[in-house]
């Protein structure tokens, strides 16, 4: 996506049409469009030819962009889990790893980036009740590896809004739930994590249709992406009207939710009410 956005900027700056760019690399206008949106792989030769067409001759600039092309084609860490990872979710993992801001609303479960291993296993079992232990282990490990994004040197900002229903839904038993509450309480102290709870007494709210995430990236030329997960697939939205609609819904959720300063208190109260000990 980053390379595609830069190629689009260079093409427009050079006054080259998508049709002409496609002709240069023995392809089509639609192929250039897909490249610029980051929806297709890159051949290093094609990128080099486009850079020449766009008048990019400086060695340092060319090499930086060609390196982006090589990196874009390198498999991510999650490819090791290809046996348990659906292709439609691989795209999300790449976006999640590249995001500068992840805003997510959850109504059924604790967000995956904040789940404990035991809670994650219980959630995974709901969707894969007959899976062998080895497969469950790999699925849990995959989810735990995702969480490393929050511990790296330049972690994204995670802003999670959690419906109270998700906290009150028993997943995995008393010990699992109490440990998950403790983990959420600890997460509220992390500098790059903001957690809010929509309490029952807030009534109906802006996201009644279900869970979704909005990902924002560090490059201003990259559009936000709305991610909506379904049982066997996912929807990725990047059109302006869709983004605006979901951005407004997320803002309203944040207003309707209890402020972040109250999250620790609410978590502690619900934990001690449901799982005293």
H-E order: HHHHHHEHHEHHEEEEHH
Content of β-strand: 5-15%
- Overall outline: elongated
Number of strands: 6
| Span between termini | 48 Å
Q: List low-pLDDT spans.
A: none
Sheet with most strands: 6 strands, mixed
Structure annotation, total helices: 12
Mean pLDDT over all positions: 92
Q: Please state how the strands of the largest beta sheet are arranged side by side.
A: 3-2-1-4-5-6
| Class computed from helices, strands and strand pairing | alpha/beta
The radius of gyration is 22 Å
Helical amount: 40-55%
Describe this structure in words.
Helix content is 49%, strand content 13%. A six-stranded mixed sheet has the order 3-2-1-4-5-6, with helices on both faces. The chain has 277 residues and is of the alpha/beta class. The longest helix is centred in the C-terminal third of the chain and has 17 residues, at 240-256. Helix 2 (18-24) packs across helix 3 (29-36) and helix 7 crosses helix 8 (133-146). The chain contains twelve helices and six strands.
List the helices and strands and how they pair.
Elements: H1 2-14, H2 18-24, H3 29-36, H4 44-53, H5 59-72, H6 87-98, E1 99-106, H7 117-127, H8 133-146, E2 157-163, H9 164-168, H10 174-187, E3 193-198, E4 212-217, E5 225-229, E6 234-237, H11 240-256, H12 263-274
Helix pairs in contact: 1-4, 2-3, 4-5, 7-8, 10-12
């Amino acid at each position: 996506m980053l390379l595609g956005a830069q190629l689009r900027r260079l093409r427009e700056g050079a006054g080259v049409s998508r049709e002409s760019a496609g002709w240069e690399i023995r392809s089509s206008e639609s192929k250039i469009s897909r490249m610029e949106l980051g929806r297709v792989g890159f051949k290093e030769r094609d990128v080099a030819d486009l850079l020449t067409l766009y008048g990019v001759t400086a060695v340092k600039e060319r090499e930086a962009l060609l390196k982006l092309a090589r990196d874009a084609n390198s498999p991510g860490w999650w490819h090791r889990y290809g046996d348990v990872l659906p292709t439609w979710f691989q795209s999300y993992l790449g976006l999640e790893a590249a995001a500068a801001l992840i805003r997510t609303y959850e109504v059924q479960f604790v967000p995956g980036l904040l789940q404990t291993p035991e809670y994650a296993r219980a959630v995974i079992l709901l969707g894969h009740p007959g899976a062998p232990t080895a497969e469950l282990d790999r699925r849990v490990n995959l989810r735990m590896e995702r969480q490393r994004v929050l511990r790296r040197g330049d972690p994204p900002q995670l802003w999670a809004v959690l419906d109270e229903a998700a906290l009150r839904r028993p997943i995995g038993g008393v010990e699992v739930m109490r440990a998950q509450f403790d983990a959420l309480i600890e997460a509220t102290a992390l500098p790059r994590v903001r957690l809010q709870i929509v309490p029952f007494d807030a009534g109906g709210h802006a996201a009644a249709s279900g869970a979704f995430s909005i990902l924002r990236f560090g490059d201003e030329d990259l559009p936000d992406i709305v991610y909506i997960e379904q049982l066997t697939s996912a929807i990725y939205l990047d059109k302006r009207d869709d983004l605006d609609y979901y951005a407004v819904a997320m803002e309203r959720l944040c207003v309707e939710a209890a402020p972040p300063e109250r999250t620790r208190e609410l978590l502690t109260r619900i934990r001690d009410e449901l799982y005293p000990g």
